[in-house]
Amino acid sequence: KPLPPIVPQLMLGDATTEALIHRLAMKYPIGGLLSNEAGLIFGGHAMGKDSLMRTLSTLNALWDAQSMSIDRRTSESYRLESARLTLGLGIQEHTLREFVAGTNGLARGSGFLARFLIAWPESTQGQRTFQDLPVARPALREFERKFSDLLANEIRLIDGRLSPIELNLTRDAKSLWVDAYNAIEKELSPCGELTDVKDVASKAADNIARLAALFHVFQNGPAGSIGRDHIERAGQIINWHLLEARRFLGQIATPPEITDAVDLEVWLLERCRTDHTGAIPIHQIQKSGPYRLRKKKPLDDALRELEEAGRVRRVKAGHKGLGVQINPALIKK
What's the rounded Cα separation, in Å, for the pair 12 and 300? Predict the structure, then answer.
């Protein structure tokens, strides 16, 4: 019986774990699970209570390029070997918090979150005024041309399985990578800067090598050895993502009332400096303050935290009721 033709399908959508493995094993061994609305994925069937453990374990194994055997009683069994899967997910902060909390520690304890390069950019909403795109965009054109060249390269397949090209490090590149590995390992000690994100940091050196390989292939094509310059650049980027992971995962571990208190203080300080005042009426906070603090209970909880820390106090605001007065020392900073 002739083998069915291989039809590349690089972009994947939400799918069950079984469907994902079957597609990589039987149809095409490369795929990207990419979404700018990843709430559909984190809230999908594959991340449900009954299938969460299996899904996270499978995705972790695919990140490590592990082989796995799929045994079936009612259909043909098969084996997944040498597949490559990329995940690129954009998700709202609140949705991700709910997902992490709903896994009862499994999302992080399993090492799932540690494999991502986390970025938590500051919101620019309210500042995104319309601007026409520039007519000439030479850098973007060159970027697209490079990608087109890479996609035009024939993928090496043997019996439908990926046969990847092996890339080596130059001696200088390996020396720099070893230095980075040791520096990261040192910070995993109880007094180190990365002790609270050991899970993420433990994957950092691996991610440096992966990213450096991508830089090398993008610039030089799939040949030659990875140089010191690419290791250095990859190290800078991974270090930035480490700091982002520490910031975000630290926030996840922080009780909501503390997070709300911090957000409220930032908003109050900005409003006081803009309006040249030392106090903001409560009704203004409920009208235009941080959205989740416009309800009475979360706002009261956040104000209580700030009051206990000596950051604010509630005062009378004339006929308009109560207001919140900022500690003057904070405004002067």
Answer: 45
Which one, of 268, 296, 291, lies nearest residue 281 by Cα?
268
The runs of H, that is alpha helices, within the chain are 17-26, 39-42, 52-63, 93-102, 106-109, 138-152, 171-186, 198-201, 204-220, 228-253, 256-275, 282-288, 296-308, 328-332
Region 223-244: mean pLDDT is 96
DSSP 252-313: HHS-HHHHHHHHHHHHHHHHHHHHT-SEEEHHHHHHHS-GGGSSHHHHHHHHHHHHHTTSEE
Q: Please give the structure tokens belonging to residue 116.
A: 């991502």
Find tokens 């409560």 and name the residue: 282
**C-alpha distances in Å from residue 301, one per residue of 19, 259, 266, 308, 325:** 45, 11, 16, 11, 16
pLDDT tens digits for range 199-210: 999 999 999 999
The contacts found for 255-258 with CB under 8 angstroms, 24 or more apart, are 256/298, 257/298, 257/301, 257/302, 257/304, 257/305, 258/305
Residue from 234, 83, 230 nearest 168 by CA: 230
Sheet architecture: strand order including 84-89: 11-12, 30-35, 84-89
In order of 243, 254, 278, 295, the CA distances from 312 in angstroms are 30, 21, 10, 19
Say yes or no to pLDDT of 98 above 80: yes
pLDDT band at 218 (very low <50, low <70, confident <90, very high): very high
d(CA 110, CA 57): 7
pTM over 0.85: no
Residue 23 buriedness (CB in 10 A; 0-12 / 13-18 / 19+)? middle
Alpha-carbon distance 285 to 304, whole Å? 15
Paired tokens of 25: 């094993």
